[in-house]
Structure formats: structure tokens, C-alpha cells
Prior knowledge:
The protein is an all-alpha fold. The chain has helices at 3-8, 16-53, 58-71, 90-122, 129-142, 167-197; strands at 87-88, 155-156.
Amino acid sequence: xxxxxxxxxxxxxxxTTVLASVxxxxxxxxxxxxxxxxxxxxxxxxxxxxxxxNNGDTETALRNLRKFVYGHMNTNLHAGISSEAPIQLVGxxxxxxEQEKARVxxxxxxxxxxxxxxxxxxxxxxxxxxxxxxxxxYLASKGIRENPIPKELYTFDFVSPRFSFDLAGVSLLLTIxxxxxxxxxxxxxxxxxSFMRG
Length: 198
């Protein structure tokens, strides 16, 4: 195309090759940015699991993951089609269960001694069935049971946005914009060419 022809298109004319190149580059950038978003989410999710396993600061690890997932597209936490919550603090939940069991066991062990002492005074005859029944009733009335720990308090799910104004989102928008521009130009030239021939 001569200089005279290109100037006739106007100041804002962008050659088709440049348009295609920019579209390709922004497309490649968007693919790598989307992939990087996903890999960062996976790393932050693993940090949560490791921190939980090592009895560390899970609040900070969860906050970092939540902030990243809410602010970046392509960070879906669900792997596969599982209906379970993707983040489960198994370590913390197990430790709380063990603490509750230990608490109940300690309280009930003390009650066992109290029951034995109380019932021995009431039923001095060791062979009588009354002492055993007395101990059982004492434990039943004053013993404690484990408080259930709600699992939902230790399970989390964060929803990734469909679009975000990060590198992935902006480059994706640019790719779509330049692709539509390129498609429009090619369609116009094809239509104009067929019109001229007709």
C-alpha cells in the first residue's frame, strides 16, 4: 500500500497486520495471566492446608486466599465435581475434637472417683448389686458428654469472579476488542470485494 493510499484511510488507520499482531499478543498474555491466576490460587490453597496441618496461623492464610480468589478470575477452588467444601481445616477440627475428648475424659474420671467414694459409703457391702447401680446412676446424672463441634465452622469456599480488572481480565478484553475489530475489517473487505465484482 502506497503512502498516498494509507493516508486516505485517515489518521487512525491501523494496518491489518498490526491489528492481528496486537490481537495475538494480547491473547497470549491473557492465556498466561489466566494460568498464573490459577497457579497462584493453588499455591495459596496449599499454604492453607500446610498451615492447618502445622497448627499455624490459618486465619492469615485463609485471608490471603480469600482476597486473591475474590479479586482474580480463573481461581475456582473446586477441583472436579465434588460437592464438598474445597477448604476443610481437618487439622484444626481434629485437634479441637481431641481437646474436647480429653476435657470430658478428665471430668468423668474425677466423677468416677466421687461416685465410688459416695456409693461405698452408702453400700459398704462390696458384693451387693446396689453399689454398682449407685455408681452407674451417679455417673449418668452428673457425668458430661462431648459437645459436638460443627464441621461447617471449619469449611470454606470462596467464589471467583467471572471477570476481574487484573492483567488477565484487561488482556482478555483487549483480545476480544481487537479480534472484533479485525473480524469487522475482514468482513467489510470481503463484502466490498464481492460488491465490486458483482
